[in-house]
Specification:
The protein is of the alpha/beta class. Helix content is 42%, strand content 15%. Helix 1 packs across helix 10.
């Protein structure tokens, strides 16, 4: 019997290719994992009536740890995001995204080393929405007017932004605990408390309160727009950054862009009981099925998963192999060729994965 049983949700789009690559690399690093395959995505609607079958959620509950490829969220149509539904079902309240420049990836900065901690359960992602013209929207508009809370145009669609004390405390505490455990020096809270006093204002108030319990770690806050400017001017100003959900989503891609792009940005969704590891990128339908995608982000997400399972050696071996493959950049995928302005031919996802496995086998 394998040492660890992990749920593998390949997802759809490039997820099928990145997940297969990740499995090969984890095996080449010598990790003893049994994968329990579970499905999610639009292709499950016909057979299960849902893009997220109950059996998939049960598998994660059983194994406690999962790694997931991206799942396409169709824009403006029927079903809500599988990613959001999974986070809700498993109470994965933290989204953790370490951002580290890897030399050779053509990243804009050489010295990015920060950690994005994004709240995962509320804010504009709560899914409390009223369609334009619906009874609910009309009642809500009338209610706001009655309360003197403000005038909303009658032809508005409305999304509600709840920010709670419970979720804010939990996410900020996670950020400080993470900083403490990983020897990080500073936590920054990003918000727009000057405009949204009762939602972002509450988040900032709670962040300040939690910070008082961690006097050994520096704390500051940044208004989100100023944060974006400061980040782009000098990412080394930041260490651990904690965000409400929506700003965290946007900032994650921005941070990924500063440090080599979506192809290499790993992540994890963590809750009190379960952890689901997944790359920051989406399903990239434009390149799916063409053996062109960069599997590094999912491979580095697997390294985070191995750390979580206590397999620190295997995790570090994978990270070292990734640094090595980029250090001479002879076998890299198209996204990195583009970022490095190179006219050498791009490697396929398969060729890149095989080279990474070769590096790992030399190391062992
Ligand atoms: P989502 O809304 O699900 O996050 P998205 O459509 O915003 O997804 P992605 O699918 O994450 O965006 O990626 C945007 C583009 O970046 C893709 O269309 C693809 O061209 C490129 N890209 C993303 N991930 C990779 C990857 N792993 N390898 C190569 N290119 C990628």
């Amino acid at each position: 019997m394998a040492k660890h049983v992990v749920t593998l949700i390949p997802g759809d789009g490039i997820g099928l290719e990145t997940s297969a690559a990740m499995q090969k690399v984890v095996a080449a690093a010598g990790a003893d994992i049994e994968w329990e395959l579970a499905e999610a995505g639009a292709h499950m609607i016909e057979s299960c009536g849902s893009p997220l079958p109950e059996s998939t959620i049960e598998s994660v509950r059983r194994n406690k740890v999962a790694i997931k490829g991206p799942v396409t969220t169709p824009v403006g149509t029927g079903f809500r995001s599988v990613n959001v539904a999974l986070r809700k079902a498993l109470n994965l309240n933290v989204c953790l995204r370490p951002v580290l420049s890897i030399p050779g990836t053509g990243s804009r900065y050489e010295d990015v080393n920060l950690v994005v901690v994004r709240e995962n359960s509320e804010d504009l992602y709560a899914g409390v929405e009223f369609e334009e013209g619906s009874e609910g929207a009309k009642k809500l508009i009338a209610f706001c007017e009655e309360q003197g809370a403000g005038t909303i145009r009658p032809d508005s669609g409305i999304s509600i932004k709840p920010i709670s004390v419970t979720a804010s405390d939990a996410i900020v505490e996670f950020a400080f605990e993470y900083a403490k455990k990983h020897g990080r020096k500073k936590v920054t809270a990003a918000h727009k408390a000057n405009i949204m006093k009762y939602s972002d204002g509450l988040f900032l108030r709670e962040a300040r309160k939690v910070a008082e319990s961690y006097p050994e770690i520096e704390f500051n806050d940044n208004i989100i727009d100023a944060f974006c400017m400061n980040l782009v001017m000098d990412p080394s100003r930041f260490d651990v950054i904690v965000f409400p959900n929506l700003y965290g989503d946007i900032a994650s891609d921005l941070c990924a862009g500063l440090a080599g792009g979506l192809g290499i940005a790993p992540g994890a969704n963590i809750g009190p009981e379960y952890a689901v590891f997944e790359a920051v990128h989406g399903s990239a339908p434009d390149i799916a099925g063409q053996d062109k995608c960069n599997p590094t982000a999912e491979i580095l997400s697997a390294a985070m998963m191995l750390d979580h399972l206590g397999e620190f050696d295997c995790a570090e071996r994978i990270r070292a192999a990734v640094r090595k493959i980029y250090s001479d950049a002879s076998v890299v995928t198209g996204d990195i060729r583009y970022a490095t302005n190179s006219d050498k031919p791009a490697a396929s996802c398969t060729a890149f994965t095989d080279e990474l496995c070769r590096i790992l086998s030399e190391d062992l």
